[in-house]
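Two proteins, back to back. First:
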Amino acid sequence: MMISHQSKIYIAITVIFMAVILLGLGIFNYLSSKTSQSSENVDDNIEQGEVFRHALNGSVLETQDQDFFAISIMFDNAYDARPQYGLNKADIVYEALAEGNITRLMGVFDSRQSINKIGPVRSARPYFMDWANDYKGVYMHVGGSPKALNNIDSYNFHEVDQIGAGEIYFWRDSNLDAPHNVFTSSANWLRVGEINDVPDINLEKNWNFIEASSSPDGLLDFSIDFVLGYNVDWKYNDKLNTYLRWQGDDKFIYNTGEQARAANVIVQVVGAKTIDDKLRRNMDTQTYGKVFVFNHLGMKEGRWELKDGRVEFYDFDQNNIDLVAGKTWIQIIPDEDMLIF
């Protein structure tokens, strides 16, 4: 049978049309497959990718860049010096005994914080300087013990002493009695940072922070017996999902009226001994000892160790103990028996 010229053209057009359709379907399936694979890869990257966290409080960051320096400030904790100003904005707070069995505090801040009044600021002690050295940055104080002042130039932070040339970065509140009346501000630490070209924070290793989740039942309340009315109680609040602080049977209140709270309370057992007739102390901050970590995950017991210039916290299997993103209080005690739970 003869096929007309017109029919041949129709058949050719039909074949070409079908080929185009098949080619289009092939391209569509290929692109869909690639898109699906790409989407899966993105999901995998989200799941497997590195999470960048703030070096001091563990909050999640978009990038690993941390464009701030740390400021460590000595705080008075005498009864007639409270409430403290600005301490509520510290990411980390250290508490340890000074002379007379009275505790002293050191707050560690992100330089980007804006705080108009911080203090009362008190004097330096070598063991607080050791902990401040973990963060480098700036260390602010009012004088110090003889050993502290003799050795302060050997540390890796920029120190600012109110007694001397650093006086311009502090002021005295005339409504308060000395020595509990020295204050500073974030504007002053920024001036220090700019004039001295203080570098951004760069820790060798961050603590192992995770995000908060639901709490297990039966989280422990506990106490630290610092004696002479300076005993501390930490009580877990289920509604706030955090620990709240009492001192000497009273709520520990900041100048803002809020009660002190912490996502993590770390009780670090550090060997100590008195070294003079004024009952000043030496503390072994450079080796290791027992540690108890309290947060919404429960209580973990283990060991602290100074490693690569940073104190780390390990369980008994030598795994890093998880901390919850948020504020951390570190309670330094010379004897494990001072911890009661």
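And the second protein:
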Amino acid sequence: MELYLGAIGVHPVVRFLARWFAPRFLRGYIVKPLGGTPRNMRTLQSIRAVEPEVSGFLEERDLFLKALDGVEALQGTVNHGLYGLMRAEDAQALVRHHTAHHFHQFGLI
């Protein structure tokens, strides 16, 4: 979600490639049913999660919910770090889909 909120930067070459391939990737990704996205897809090094600076589950949950609120508050046009300009509604749909994918991946839904 930090990408959607502009908190993480992406290397210019990675950004160029992502914007070149994004339309096809995003169309295919967003229509997959829950569980349809392959597991263990590689994460770009520049956006890979690092060891959290929080001390426990409750703090991590609160950070997650705060970021989710930030994404849900997006309006108009969003400048996504990888995909470039996109409608806020599309960015929110991607975050929801991606979050549901991870919740399904770890057996939470």
